[in-house]
Design a protein that fits this description.
Length: 96
Amino acid sequence: MRYITITTWEIADGADYDVALRAIEEKRLPALKGFGASRITVVRTSERTSAAITEWPDKATRDAAELKIDEVRRSVKRDDQTRMTGEMRGEIVADV
């Protein structure tokens, strides 16, 4: 069964959103795809915040990538002036 993670992010005060997003698009999203994610959607939710919706083929694929994902998240904070503010995850139970 397909599995979703939704993470929320905030860029540092004074950082350029477009510059931060470009770095994420070039480095972070391809890394998630390489770990097995089938789709990643980033939604800008305010001037400094975003939500990333990542779809995985199943929970096992997401769980197998856990350590690598943690490493990417640490580097995002350090390198891209962005911090994760929340996470939700679960199996897709309905889809239209």
